[in-house]
Amino acid sequence: MFRRKYAWAVFYTLVLTAFTVYAALDTFVISRVYAAVPPAESSQGASGEEQPSGAEGDAAGAESGEAAPAEPVITENSYSDGAISVTITQYREHETDIYVADVRLSSPDQLKTALAQNAYGRNVTQKTSEMAEAAGAILAVNGDYYGSQEQGYVIRGGVLYRDAPAQGREDLVIYEDGSFAVVSEEEVTAQQLLEDGAVQVLSFGPALVEEGAVSVSPDDEVGKSMASNPRTAIGAVDGLHYLFVVSDGRTEESQGLSLYQLAEFMESLGASTAYNLDGGGSSTLWFCGSVINNPTTNGRTIGERSVSDIVYIGY
Fold first, then answer.
1. What is the pLDDT of the chain when averaged over all its residues?
2. Which is nearest to 229 in space by CA: 272, 271, 276, 274?
3. Phi/psi of residue 178, each to 5°?
4. b or e along 195-220 (b: 16 or more beta carbons within 10 Å of the residue's beta carbon)?
5. Helix, strand or coil for residue 34?
6. pLDDT tens-digit profile of 67-108?
7. How far apart are CA 167 and CA 155, in angstroms?
8. How many CB atoms lie within 10 A of CB 10?
C-alpha cells in the first residue's frame, strides 16, 4: 500500500512538472503564427495605403507633385536624401550613454512598423537588425514586443490584429497624418481607433511627455523593473519631426535611466509627445546597416535580443 501511494505521488509530480515545463515553453518559447502580414502591408506607411516602388513609384511621385528622393548622402551619424533626414547624436547623462536620432520626414508614409518574420503571432521573433535589413529601413528601433503579452491592442499598417484591452495600459496611436496621441485602452476600443484613422498602435508605455510636459513621476516604473535600465522611446516634436531615443544600461559604462529621467530627457529635446517602448535587453537602435548602441540583457555580454516588432523609417 505504501509503495502504491509513493508511486502515485511520483507520477503526480512528474505530470505536474511536465505540465509546468510545457506551460513555460508555450508562453516563452514555442512560436505560434496567427496571421501572416498582408502582402501590401510591407509597403505601407502611416497612411495605411500601399506605396508604389521603383520606376512606378517615381512616376507616381512625379504625378502627385512630390519629388523623388535624391541619391542619399550618408555619414557615420547622418542620412539625407531630400525627403528623409536623420541625424544621430550621442549624449552622456546620468552616467549613461544615450543615443538620439532626430528625424524629419516629407511624408507620414515614411514612418513604418514591421513584424518579425512578417507574421503576427506568439513568440514569433527576430532581431531588430534582421527586421530592419529585410524591410530596407534607414533607421529602426525595437517596438513594443507585443508577442510577450496576451493583452494590449495591436494595430500595424492599418490592420487590427488584437483587440484585447489591458487594464491600465496607455497606448501610442500614430494616425494617417503622422500625428501622435496617447490613449487609455480602458477608454476606447481598438476598432474605434481603427475607424478614427489609427495606422499604428503600440501598446507598452507609459506616456513620458504629453502636451510638452513630463507625464510620469519619479516613482513610476514599468512593472517590477529596476529603476535604471536600458530604454527605448519615440517622440514627436511637431509636424513630421520625430525623435528616436535609446539608452544603454546594466553595464559598468552605463547604468541606465529611470522612466522619469528618460521623460525629462525627451522633454529637454523638445518632444511634445513621447512614449516609452519595450526596454531592457530589447533596446536597440539600428542605423544604415549597424547597431548603434550596446544592447544587453545581463550586462555581461553585448548582443541583440530577438523581439516581435520594430518601428522604422524608410520607403
1. 87
2. 276
3. 85, 0
4. eebbbbbbbbbbbbbbeeebbbeeee
5. strand
6. 568 999 999 999 999 999 999 999 999 999 999 999 999 999
7. 18
8. 10
Q: Which helix (H) or strand (E) holds 40?
A: none
Residue reference for cell 502582402: 39
Q: Which residues contact 170 (CB under 8 A, 6 or more apart)?
A: 182, 183, 184, 185, 205, 206, 207, 275
- Strand pairing class (241-247; 306-307): unpaired
Contact 287, 138 (CB under 8 A): yes
What is the reported pTM? Answer: 0.84
CA of 221: how far to CAs of 16, 80, 89, 172, in Å?
A: 34, 36, 26, 17
Which residue is listed with cell 555581461?
A: 300
C-alpha–C-alpha distance, residues 90 and 254, integer Å: 13
Question: In this structure, are residues 207 and 259 in contact, taking their beta carbons and an 8 Å threshold?
Answer: no
User: Of 302, 263, 295, which is closest to residue 281 (Cα–Cα)?
Assistant: 295
d(CA 52, CA 98): 36
Q: Write down the H helix ranges in the chain.
A: 2-28, 54-64, 128-135, 190-195, 259-268
62-77: pLDDT as tens digits: 444 455 689 999 999 9
Burial of 230 (0-12, 13-18, 19+ CB in 10 A): buried
User: What is d(CA 298, CA 285) in angstroms, rounded to the nearest whole number?
Assistant: 18
Residue 246: pLDDT over 80: yes
CA trace torsion 60, 117, 128, 69 (10° rounding): -10
DSSP string, 245-279: EEE--SSSS---B-HHHHHHHHHHTT-SEEEEE--
